[in-house]
Amino acid sequence: MRIVITGGMGFIGQALARRLIGAGHVVVLVDNLSPQIHGELPTLSVPEGSSLKRLDVREIADQPALLDGCDAVYHLAAETGTAQSMYRVRHYVGVNEFGTAALLEALAACAKRPRRVILASSRSVYGEGAYVDPRAPDQMLQPPSRSAEQLAAHGWELQAPDGYPLTPVPTAEDLPFAPGSVYAATKAAQELLLRASAPALGIKPVILRFQNVYGEGQSLQNPYTGIISIFFNRARQGLGIPLYEDGFESRDFIHIDDIVAGLVAALDADLPDGLAINLGAGTPTTVTELAEALVAASGHQVPITVTGQYRVGDIRHCFADMRRAKERLGIVPQVSLATGLARFCAWAESQPVFEDGSNKALAELRARNLASAE
Known about the structure:
Blueprint: E1 2-6, H1 11-22, E2 26-31, H2 35-38, E3 50-54, E4 72-75, H3 82-85, H4 89-108, E5 116-122, E6 131-133, E7 136-141, H5 148-152, E8 167-168, H6 182-201, E9 204-210, E10 212-214, H7 227-236, E11 241-243, E12 250-251, E13 253-255, H8 256-268, E14 276-279, E15 285-286, H9 287-298, E16 304-306, H10 323-329, H11 337-349, H12 358-367
Helix pairs in contact: 1-8, 4-6, 7-9, 9-11
């Protein structure tokens, strides 16, 4: 097959390309080589056996020949920082929504269109995700995002209207959209655009909702996203690791190998059009647990400090219900967090040291009243 990957020089795109090339496919990578991810002077290491077209996805509508005759498209190109999206609104909408629209326009201009488009969406579309009230455990709830006032009062956990604490449960794909950030809203829009256009274009739309992806190859110089990379970069330079809120917020961390396995399985799986499928580990890990495990795996002993600070738009908990991934794709995550962190740290230690930019990123939020003051 001839396969096009937008965002193909990103962390996930390169790992996917190597797997597809190993399976005998012809791979074309489309990427703008964003300085925030690749640096001002990117050092290119194009996966052997693939070709690269340097192009902003928003301009792909003008070059449909890139897509004409290909068998499948993986649409990975996107801006991904939740906090940054809250003030770079036009940029995120431009790249994520207009970029997807441009891709669809290019496909409409193709004489021979691909048989399917596989979209990398996000767990962020669920907002705070699924909860239950322990007093009525059979009733699924989807609480609204925490307000700035609640965060300022250090009301970290989600509560019932009467103040009773709610319990997070695995979030399944049938939970409605409830985006709590601009980034999340753009990912929901990507899904809607693809679903709306695919029938007229004769393309099968496949939607994969990623949890927190990490692993070897992740950018170590992007201070806006990738909590594991940010923590490692600070620890390596002898800087302490600051934890937001009370350190007990949790995330679902999935290793790049398991994400790629899901992406490859989606290429040929017999799926209903537009079906959304979660890809995660299916288990929550608190940020405190993550920081402690990362420090142990890296060997860089630095202080871990709970700061009580917060960012508007962050969720408290969310972890994936993985039943559909198992049933539809045959995917069961194979890489444990302990193994994945050990592999990541061994790889990251071999990479150049990049100046920590997390304080600068936080200052940008504070200047816009989107994060707590010091």
